[in-house]
Predict the structure of ASTRA-associated protein 1.
Amino acid sequence: MEPGPPVPAYILRGHEAAIHALHFYANNALLASADSDGWMVIWSLSSKRPVAVWKAHEAGVLQIKHWTTARLVRDHKLRVWQLRHEDLVGLRTKLPADSDSSTAAAASDHPHPWLLHSMSVNALNFCAFSMCDQDPRRPASGAVAAQLIASPNGLDSGGIDIFQLPSERRISQIRSDKNNPTGMVMAVCLFHQTTETASQLVLVAGYEDGRITVLTHAGDLSNPDGSGRWQKVASCKAHTQPILSLAMLPCKTHFLSSSADSLISKFCIPSLVDADDGSKDLKSEKSLNTKHSGQQGLSVRSDGKIFATAGWDGRVRVYSCKTMKELAVLKWHKVGCYSTAFASIDPTVAPDAGVVDGVPPSSASLDGNAALSSISTTKDISQPMSALDMIKQQREENARRTHWLGAGGKDGKISLWDIY
């Protein structure tokens, strides 16, 4: 007897509006979700219940990342919130769908976490921001690493601004090519390409006309005068319709693109050596005609083996990063899906690792100054754990080790899948 189609492990209900952003963090203990009404929900993956709910913005959220954590929304604000374990205690857990009052009244009933930073950015493009460490070779320390953030320029719809946190300054600007118009910036991906001897900042941008451009920056962005310049090293007309999403593979040598057309393409990023030879034609290593238009929300799992897309047809599709072969079609949502997210895979933790003598396996901890941190606290191992505590700890560890794939849709629901 053949196995039936995959079904979600859990459905998280609570948003009333379409979900445009999902993000696993805190060693997969928490899932952050945000919708087109600006509501933010932090879910515990052990209990599958909300631990914090607040109205983060007056318009839809386009992206969530943790640094602390930042969000870019259509009210032209990028905000950084402090959300430690002790901060969750004072926040409400009543979900937007459970509120029987008006939106304004419901928002006023939900206190906000501490707002660390707020910057004005352009979000009319519906383009999510991209962020990376300012110095990739900076040794780990107690201080929070400075971040670079790429987002569309406010006046030049084809231009891109680079901001720095925590200074909140714009430190660089990439102007659009007036001789070769591309339309609006639709997606950006900012990262460092590093070798043993050099490191260079790379920006991949997708545009309204289906074009993709790769630029590198030569110089030091940390200087107040923004010394250095951006150089276009490769470009191509990858799609016939606007780019919907870009996703970098963990190896930082390849990236994926999806569009309003039915193609998903995989590209090799020009090396630092090739960048000195001037602009070249960017050619896709593999291009897959999925025959399904409108796949967005590209996300790649941290082990670089699979990636997922959210489809306008309500389907979540999983593909192999190596072969681009379609591995699974996940059917549950009745309306369009807009976002996907993978939980991080820790290769040092065995899939069946569990609590031994009341002590959970070790895992990488977050910086104490980080805005998003785990809600669970490990008890002093010198004190014996009660049976209830051990069960709770086991549940939390099981949730952290699960290979979650989350998908958010127009229906305001989040499907959690445990596959691959």
Observations:
- Confidence is low (pLDDT under 50) at residues 352-381.
- The first strand starts at residue 10 and ends at 13.
